[in-house]
Design goal:
The structure holds two protein chains of two kinds.
Chain A (H helix, E strand, L loop, with lengths): L9 E10 L2 E11 L4 E5 L6 H9 L6 E6 L2 E2 L5 H6 L2 E3 L12 H7 L7 H5 L2 H4 L1 H13 L15 H14 L4 E5 L7 H16 L3 E5 L3 H7 L2 E6 L2 E6 L1 H5 L2 H11 L3
Parallel strand pairs in A: 3-8, 3-9, 6-7, 7-8
Antiparallel strand pairs in A: 1-2, 1-4, 4-5, 9-10
Chain B lengths: L2 H24 L8 H18 L4 H23 L4 H21 L9 E2 L6 H19 L2 H11 L1 H6 L4 H27 L1 E2 L6 H14 L5 H16 L7 H15 L7 H5 L8
Antiparallel strand pairs in B: 1-2
């Protein structure tokens, strides 16, 4: 990958994170450039989800820095980072148990600082939120499920609701933790085309995924994590032929 | 209307407001067993204002709501560190603290109680109850209510979608306490005499029961719950000494058959729970 003048949207410098004696992240450094789909791969326990948790503020790094748009966000609270434009999904789907699909899309829209908009019926005072929710609903093909309790939907749809919730907050950076886990090839292909369309709208996507075919066909750039350290980075074709990766990851894990 | 029925109606209105105060805080997933404490604050503040400062009743009740609400916010901060039964125990402790405070607070009569308030009618109580109900129903359709529910459902995810859980939980405590304060001001002026014993643990439990029985996901829940809690023991009078036992049995039956309470969101919106095909 040739360096360009464009500033990275997200930059990590020498991020360390340990839990007790276990080193989950050991000096991870990366720079995610805007408008790309970037994959993080690595064996189970490599620290991929911990990396997401550090980026979103769920954990704070022991040392090192996280920058979003060149602002240090290392010690920001999760809701501050979310409002700065980072949204995520979870490996094990986490939807709001009491809410319909529609309510998920409304609640995630970054609240606008106005008392009236917050305390009066959304239907009356916030047509912008309504139309944004409708737009996202259409994008993910969830119109038919609008008034359903989200948890009652089939698995694949629940995944889409999670992505829709993340997208409705208008993020700059979308973090997806195993977006096609448990999906068949056809469903994964649907997600792939959705993500390509999202990239087309200017959203930067960082995703963790075990499905190698999916990752190789979708991502512009890849980072390989092993035991908390980055062991390789590059385009999919570079990664495919990288001996360190073959040794550490593909050789062991290529069961799919 | 006979005095007897007017009295029952007034009791329903006050219990409903108390139930509503528990309902508000419960929406964020926080169970309070101390709302009688906020009610006591409201009752004493409103009584002091009307009796010694000759403030008009409605203004006194508004002031009582504001002061109770402010105390609710103060209680809300330490409560942030507690969850589930630990929070319930802490709020219970708060309620008892307020009760024993008024027991030794001589300027407001201490254990002798406080009197001199002018009686208010059941109609006046219901004007307040309906106004507060309409306000809550308005807020139920706003995004702040969705934010409160999101925190109950999954606080971690709620923060990751940009919600400031601390502020919302503390704010809900304040709103809940203010509502209990209104109930207290009305109670004091309906009974024209108050003593610390009026605001004990049993009253906090009554508030919670109204919500659990009637339904904890819609504002109409505590209304139905309050109605049943006041009417049922009366309607069961033919059972003489057995009526309280029969009442307890009915309560258990409701909890077994409809854990979410008699009313819920799905029932009121006519939404079906069937899974999508």
């Amino acid at each position: 990958m040739t360096p360009t003048a464009e500033a990275p949207l997200l930059r990590l410098d020498a991020v360390h994170k340990s839990f007790g004696g276990v080193r989950a992240l050991a000096g991870v450094a990366c720079a995610i450039r805007p408008g790309q789909i970037v994959g993080i791969i690595g064996p189970n326990g490599a620290g991929k989800t911990t990396l997401f948790n550090v980026i979103t503020g769920a954990y704070h790094a022991d040392s090192g820095d996280v920058h979003l748009d060149e602002h240090p966000i290392t010690f920001w609270k999760p809701h501050e980072i979310a409002r700065a434009g980072v949204a995520r999904t979870f490996q094990n789907i986490r939807l709001f148990a009491s809410m319909t699909v529609w309510e998920h899309l409304l609640v995630a829209q970054r609240h606008r600082e106005s008392w009236a908009r917050r305390f009066l019926p959304t239907r009356w005072v916030d047509p912008a939120a309504q139309s944004r929710a409708q737009e996202v609903l259409g994008f993910f093909g969830l119109e038919c499920a609008r008034e359903r309790p989200a948890r009652s939907l089939p698995y694949g749809m629940q995944r889409r609701v999670e992505m829709a919730r993340a997208l409705s907050s208008d993020p700059k950076l979308l973090l997806l933790d195993e977006p096609v886990a448990g999906m068949n090839a056809e469903e994964a292909e649907e997600v792939r085309s959705l993500l390509l369309r999202l990239r087309g709208t200017g959203i930067t996507i960082l995703l963790i995924e075990h499905d190698m075919t999916f990752v190789m066909n979708l991502c512009d750039y890849l980072y390989v994590l092993d035991f908390g350290a980055l062991i390789a980075q590059g385009t999919p074709s570079e990664i495919r032929s990288n001996p360190a990766v073959l040794n550490a990851y593909l050789g062991r894990e290529d069961r799919a | 209307m006979s005095t007897y029925y007017a009295g029952l109606l007034a009791d329903v209105g006050i219990l409903f407001l108390g139930g509503l105060s528990v309902y508000i805080i419960l929406t964020t997933g926080q169970l309070s067993l101390g709302n009688a404490g906020f009610m006591a604050v409201g009752a004493y503040v409103a009584s002091y204002l009307t009796v010694t400062a000759a403030v008009p009743i409605s203004i006194a009740i508004l002031a009582a709501a504001m002061i109770s609400g402010a105390i609710g916010v103060l209680v809300g901060f330490p409560a942030l560190r507690l969850r589930g039964i630990y929070l319930a125990m802490a709020t219970l402790g708060f309620g008892e603290m307020v009760r024993s405070f008024f027991l030794i607070f001589e300027p407001m009569g201490g254990s002798v109680g406080f009197h001199g308030m002018r009686h208010i009618s059941a109609a006046y109580i219901w004007t307040w109850a309906v106004t507060v109900l309409m306000l809550v129903m308005l807020i139920e359709r706003s995004r702040i209510w969705l934010e409160m529910r999101a925190i109950d459902d999954d606080e971690v995810v709620a923060e990751l979608v940009g919600l400031n859980a601390t502020r919302i939980k503390v704010g809900a405590f304040g709103l809940s306490a203010a509502t209990a304060g209104v109930a207290g001001g009305l109670f004091a002026h309906h009974h024209v005499y108050i003593e610390p014993g009026n605001f004990g643990f049993e009253r906090s439990i009554d508030f919670v029961l109204a919500v659990i029985l009637g339904g904890s996901t819609v504002a109409a829940g505590p209304l139905l719950g309050a109605l049943l809690l006041v009417i049922l023991p009366e309607a069961l009078r033919f059972l003489a000494d057995w009526r309280l036992a029969a009442f307890g049995t009915l309560l258990i039956a409701v909890l077994l058959l409809r854990r979410q309470g008699l009313l819920d969101r799905a029932l009121l919106s006519g939404r079906l729970r069937a899974p999508i095909a």
